[in-house]
């Protein structure tokens, strides 16, 4: 559970040693830039950091491709959901890069590999906890980890090191664990990139269609059409997000009836179905809400007909 | 030997539990107080038992399961110890050097750079590990054949396409195990980003050097083995058995184990012999639970002997 296992926080301030390493790595090097500090803050356990950025805001900045940018394009149904997921992945990769930097620094200070490996595993799990709070498609990995490790975030250092000599296989040493902590799933990264492209295309289509409808509407109706389109898009986004989340939970529950291993694929299938149903329902509900707002703003009773030619 | 379990009595004595019979291990002293995680057992053509006692490893070997001969104690990190029932040896692998222990004593086997583990082969011990990739901050899996005087020196080259495909999937970072006792040679690896993806990979290297690989999703390879006719067999940590018949096929043991355990296991140690299968299963919440099957792994039952501590399953 997030923070439940005493997740470590990394070096964040001059003079502060990495938490969880058990001993000081020695004098701390000059601080890096603000962006690096932000990335490192992602590896702090939720609740232990007062000033770490929220993944949502950081995902928005990652979306904009600029650490200081604004998430202006974070809007619109399935496209936005796809791009949002891709941005979260980018954020995860940033956290991983920060962990790699920190490992290099700790090694340069002569910190023993065992302590680096412990910190790296905890930092990775803390980054997962922080980012997955916002991730609607996390259910599959979480269910698998719950079954396999008893923790939704993944294995602990102790679990990784508990080998069985009788199996006749090389154990996971600290060096291998440290290396693994600096790597993220290449396939997922590649798909995240594709998702981002697909998401941007979908958003562009959504916005273009909505813009066309607004433009085609009579001038006096454009505010109404705009409200309806905007609420429809917002509804699709919110519905997709909530649908995927609820669908994942329901799928995991149903899958668990078929043995523990059914929970993970159940969650994945549930997320997909829930996301689709949620996006469609959300779009409909958003449009209905838009109609209601339009009726409130422009009551039919107050409609006046203008004299025609 | 028949299929059964290695157990420890309340007095700390080790014994084999076969059916209802408790068969003491003659020649093995009581090991009271030693954590179960520091006792390892491998059964096959011979049986090997090891105990991590402080910073030393103590080991015993038996040809019949009853009388056990001691291997001289050796200073070795418990994490670096391996047990191989065939040929009946305990190993201690450190960078650049493997030490192989039998009741006759220990012998040294120099390892090539990058080798991190060894496994038995027909012409001697094979070595597996990884080599750095020129111009990249990466490593690629490698295996070395024995090349005279017991030295593992000749590198086995898998195909370029296979290597590229596997590297993209994270399965070609380093080999973790090798079984070269017969053709084809079997190798195992684990996903390079195992903190995100615990999947394992099974590889078969044929005489021509062609590597055929299979990813086993969300489960790690736990052990490589052979059937009596030399058919490669692998076990994954969910208790599943995989057999090589031109391609890897699963036997469906994991489903039965899951049903008997009532939940998906976190780790399973399986031993099989002639339709009689024994297993120890750990769930994420604890364990182990002793499980048995009399029909080749289809249906499993729990074995309740609360007065005994179950340490390992054995087939031979």
A few lines on this structure:
The complex is a heterodimer of chains A (309) and B (316). Chain A is mainly alpha-helical.
Verbal overview:
The complex is a heterodimer of chains A (309) and B (316). With 309 residues, chain A is an all-alpha fold. Chain A is built from ten helices and no strands. The longest helix of chain A is centred in the C-terminal third of the chain and has 35 residues, at 222-256. Chain B contains two helices and 28 strands. In chain B, a hairpin with a 5-residue loop joins β20 (221-226) and β21. At the A-B interface, α5, α7 and α8 of A face β4, β8, β12, β20 and α2 of B.
Portion in beta strands of chain A: under 5%
How many angstroms does the end-to-end distance of chain A come to?
70 Å
The helix tally of chain A amounts to 10
Order of helices and strands of chain A: HHHHHHHHHH
Assembly level: heterodimer
Task: Tell me the span between the first and last alpha carbons of chain B.
Answer: 5 Å
What percent of the residues of chain A sit in helical stretches (DSSP H or I)? 55-70%
